[in-house]
UniProtKB/TrEMBL annotation:
Organism listed in the record: Coccidioides immitis H538.4
Record protein name field: Midasin
Molecular function terms from GO: ATP binding; ATP hydrolysis activity
InterPro entries per the UniProt record, alphabetical: ATPase_dyneun-rel_AAA, Midasin_AAA_lid_5, P-loop_NTPase
Superkingdom assignment: Eukaryota
One Pfam assignment: AAA_5
Any one biological process term the GO annotation gives: ribosomal large subunit assembly
Lineage: Eukaryota, Fungi, Dikarya, Ascomycota, Pezizomycotina
Basic and acidic residues bias: start-end ranges: 7-25
Keyword annotations of the record: ATP-binding, Nucleotide-binding
Residue ranges constituting the Midasin AAA lid domain according to the UniProt record: 168-271
GO cellular component: nucleus; preribosome, large subunit precursor
Occurrences of domain ATPase dynein-related AAA (ranges): 63-154
Chain positions covered by the region annotation Disordered: 1-33
């Protein structure tokens, strides 16, 4: 099979009996070093595939597959640091498989037994190996709290969400928008204060979505608005891009009544000091 896939194209015959190639009449030049390297990699893959087919045809299952150590095992041996992000999204079986990394032996080193590889001796970890994990509260779909036994093996630190502090929000907005704020230095505090007011209204249960449920706003919602501003500010200007990005990320989640409740805050923070908002939203009108 491999030889059939990677063989050189054979000439074909047309209706008149003349030979023609399988290759199209027009093609790009592939003589650069980039395509030369790519061709070598494909050829290497073809050789490995041919060797694999040979082993399967002989029924030699022992050499058809080999156990390959994962990145965590390599980090354990080399003394590297590993971060498991969103650890509470992992399945119970996955969490059980890493629990031994949190149990240190008499010499103070973690270890792991690779039973899948048929080994009977545990792999001893390096003294410098560290395992970190991060998780959000189990409020979203698919997330669950860690078991008390596993959670107690970590040194736990709670990090407050930065979207409740004005200074943190300003730092976030300025980091994303950067040079765009040189033309409008008040845009960052305007957007930050608008976000805080919308969060406050939501915390007071005054906002609902189209299904009558409480919407969920977070830093990710704000970042989506900021990314829109980055893409569109050169077309519409910073203020209008902020207005459209905020409307797209926040107002589309709200019902009509909640949208009317938020509208005065948008007018206050984004256009309050500019007098006529229409001159910003529709400069050519």
């Amino acid at each position: 099979m491999a030889s059939a896939v990677f063989r050189e194209p054979k000439p074909l015959k047309n209706d008149g009996g003349e030979a023609r190639s399988e290759q199209p009449a027009k093609k790009r030049k592939l003589d650069t070093s980039k395509y030369g390297t790519l061709k070598q990699r494909w050829q290497s893959f073809a050789n490995e595939l041919t060797e694999f087919e040979t082993h399967v045809a002989r029924g030699d299952a022992k050499v058809s597959f080999a156990f390959v150590q994962g990145k965590i095992v390599k980090a354990l041996k080399d003394g590297e640091w590993v971060l498991l992000d969103e650890i509470n999204l992992a399945s119970p079986e996955t969490l059980e498989s890493i629990s031994s990394l949190l149990q240190h032996g008499r010499d103070g080193r973690p270890s792991v037994l690779l039973s899948e590889a048929g080994e009977v001796d545990a792999v001893q970890g390096h003294h410098d190996f560290r395992l970190f994990a991060a998780m959000n509260p189990a409020t979203d779909a698919g997330k669950r709290d860690l078991t008390p036994g596993l959670r107690s093996r970590f040194t736990e630190l709670y990090v407050q969400s930065p979207d409740g502090d004005l200074d943190d929000l300003l730092s976030l907005v300025k980091t994303y928008l950067g040079p765009l704020l040189h033309r409008d230095s008040t845009a960052a505090p305007a957007l930050a204060n608008l976000y805080l007011d919308v969060k406050r209204l939501n915390a007071e249960h005054k906002l609902t979505d189209g299904a009558g449920q409480k919407p969920h706003f977070s830093i990710r919602t704000l970042v989506r608005a900021l990314l829109y501003v980055i893409d569109q500010a050169h077309v519409y200007g910073v203020r209008r891009a902020i207005y459209e990005g905020f409307s797209m990320s926040f107002l589309t989640l709200l019902g009509k009544e909640a949208e009317r409740l938020v509208a005065p805050y948008i007018e206050k923070h984004l256009f309050g000091k500019h007098g006529n908002s229409r001159s910003i939203l529709f400069p050519d009108a």
